[in-house]
What does this fold into?
Amino acid sequence: MRTHTQREGTESVNADRQALKALLVKRRALVQPAEHGFPAPRQGPPRPGLSQQQVDELTNRP
It folds into this structure.
């Protein structure tokens, strides 16, 4: 059974996670893929900025 404090902690973590996701989406949208040599996306709805895969490539993440 969760206590009041545990529930508040879980809600706080979820709020932080949502805020971080919103921040990353907003920041990625500011970077144009063509500025870094990436082609325009060909599939799916157009979205502004870099995809997560392109960010991973630029930051040398495996």
Remarks:
- The chain has two helices and no strands.
